[in-house]
Automatic annotation (TrEMBL):
<dbReference type="InterPro" id="IPR007351">
    <property type="entry name" value="YjbR"/>
</dbReference>
<dbReference type="InterPro" id="IPR058532">
    <property type="entry name" value="YjbR/MT2646/Rv2570-like"/>
</dbReference>
<dbReference type="InterPro" id="IPR038056">
    <property type="entry name" value="YjbR-like_sf"/>
</dbReference>
<protein>
    <recommendedName>
        <fullName>MmcQ/YjbR family DNA-binding protein</fullName>
    </recommendedName>
</protein>
<dbReference type="Pfam" id="PF04237">
    <property type="entry name" value="YjbR"/>
</dbReference>
Amino acid sequence: MTATKALTIDQLDTLCAALPGATRSIKWEVDLVWSVGGKMFVVYCTLGPERGRLSFKVDTDRFLELSDQPGMMAAPYMARAFWICVSEPERYASRTLAEHVRHSYTLVRSRLSKRMQASLPDA
C-alpha cells in the first residue's frame, strides 16, 4: 500500500482478495462486505453520505483507545462486538487502514470453529 490517505475500494478489494478464504458480497444494498468463514471482517460503504466509511473488528483491549481517535468511532450496531467505524478515512494513511483490515481478518478467522478454520486455505 502506498502512503496515500484513506483506502479506496480497489485497494480494499486487492487486499482482501489476497487473504485466504475471504469472500466478497454486497449487503444492505450499499455496503461492500468481506467475510471469512461466513463472518464479516470489514465493511465499506459504497453509496450515500457515508460513502468511503470503513468498519472492522478490533481487539477488545484497543476498542476504547481506537474509538476515541479523531475520525474513528464505535461502529453503529456493531460496537458491542468491538467494531470500529472510520468515519473520516481521509485522516488515515491507506497503509494504516490496511493493517487494521488484516488484523480484523486474523481476529475473525481465529474465532471460527476449529472445523471451519481447517476447511479454509492456509493463512
